[in-house]
């Protein structure tokens, strides 16, 4: 799934080789505002994987949502979308997610 990714330490991020030239965005939570100082770091990628069983239980497809921003949260890359009565999460498909 596509997203605007701010995860500079991912080896697949388009600016990975230039990561030392930027302040890395951390502590992100879905719905959080990204300040202008980080704008140049956000690049479109196609690497998200759903993390929620709600996709199965609600009979919806992750691809039906716009995953606007992915960035480092508390130790891993995360993004989310909200619908009527639910919040869905996805993470980087290049990471191994351990709950």
Outline the secondary-structure elements.
Layout: E1 2-5, E2 43-46, E3 48-50, H1 54-57, E4 67-72, E5 77-83, E6 86-92
Parallel strand pairs: 1-4
Antiparallel strand pairs: 1-2, 3-6, 4-5, 5-6
Which key terms come to mind for this protein?
six-stranded mixed β-sheet; elongated; single chain; mainly beta; 99 residues
Number of domains: 1
Number of discrete helical segments: 1
How is the largest sheet built, in terms of strand order? 2-1-4-5-6-3
Rg over CA atoms, rounded to whole Å, is 13 Å
Mean pLDDT: 82
Q: Estimate what percentage of residues fall within beta strands.
A: 25-35%
Structural class: mainly beta
Distance between the termini: 21 Å
**Main sheet makeup:** 6 strands, mixed
